[in-house]
Amino acid sequence: MPKTLKEFIDKVICGDALEVLKEIPDNSVDMGVTSPPYNKGENKKGWLVNRVVYKGATDNLPEEDYQRIQIEVLNELYRIIKPGGSLFYNHKIRWERGVMIHPMDWLRKTKWVIRQEIVWDRMIAANIRGWRFWQVDERIYWLYKPKGKNIIGDELKSRHALLTSIWRFPPENNNPHPAPFPIALPVRAIYSIMDDKKGGIIIDPYCGSGTTLVAAKILGHHYIGIDISPEYVEYSIKRLENYKREIQDVEKELSKHVVRKTFKERKERGEFVGKYRKINPKTTRTLFDK
Length: 290
Ligand SMILES: C[S@@+](CC[C@H](N)C(=O)[O-])C[C@H]1O[C@@H](n2cnc3c(N)ncnc32)[C@H](O)[C@@H]1O
Known about the structure:
Layout: E1 11-14, H1 17-21, E2 29-34, H2 63-80, E3 81-91, E4 94-96, E5 99-101, H3 104-107, E6 113-121, E7 137-144, H4 158-161, E8 166-168, H5 184-194, E9 201-204, H6 211-218, E10 222-227, H7 230-241, H8 247-254, H9 263-268
Parallel strand pairs: 1-10, 2-3, 2-9, 6-8, 9-10
Antiparallel strand pairs: 3-7, 4-5, 6-7
The structure holds S-adenosylmethionine.
């Protein structure tokens, strides 16, 4: 018998993301925030820190299989998310034997409209080798499910849009999971899309330590979490029980969603408004002037 949405609400389910997603009804979830395993091969190690090894899952598939599964998971998420809904998908650029592997390689093969590529500036990262400049960025793809003929979607409120396409948060340290994102990340995604609405349903099919789920709960929403590792599922459930400890971190992120100055105010004060102004060579000094 097909399952009802009720069976998934406010649950952390232990299982394979693709298999569990297949059981969730169509057009039933408001949005998702997730970070899948990156297929980093488990043999890659930086000079500074230990490699990421998940308990209960391997991260070492042939790249072709990995991308095929990611496309299937993304298309299942597309099916279950409501028209007009969004998915924030965190990933990164990788290299294999010198060849760049970019998340866009498989994202363009999914049903999603790719609404924006956001750069997550972590400011620090584990793997330091001198083959390239130190890669301290990850990416967050804002994926959108069109509603009718509207493939652009609604405008964000200024207090969210002015946070820019570069999100600067340090990685999370205070967490036993090997690769959690900081709670500010799902809070920013959820609050920007849902704004002051409450009671939505937010899914994370690779929920790890439950960061997205705790963010959803504190912001007044329901959650659905999935992870293949029983240990991380158990940890997420405990973390959800103790969610009050994280309210302060959530409030810190919310305090950034304010419009300090409107464009009109900036213009009146002669401050930068992002508008191109023709430079007057008689009055403007350049780098080459003595
Ligand atoms: C990058 S971590 C997610 C971390 C999470 N965002 C957090 O803040 O804790 C990826 C997670 O995917 C889980 N995982 C790996 N393969 C899976 C699969 N096939 N189905 C569901 N979860 C899986 C791992 O156990 C790991 O917890």
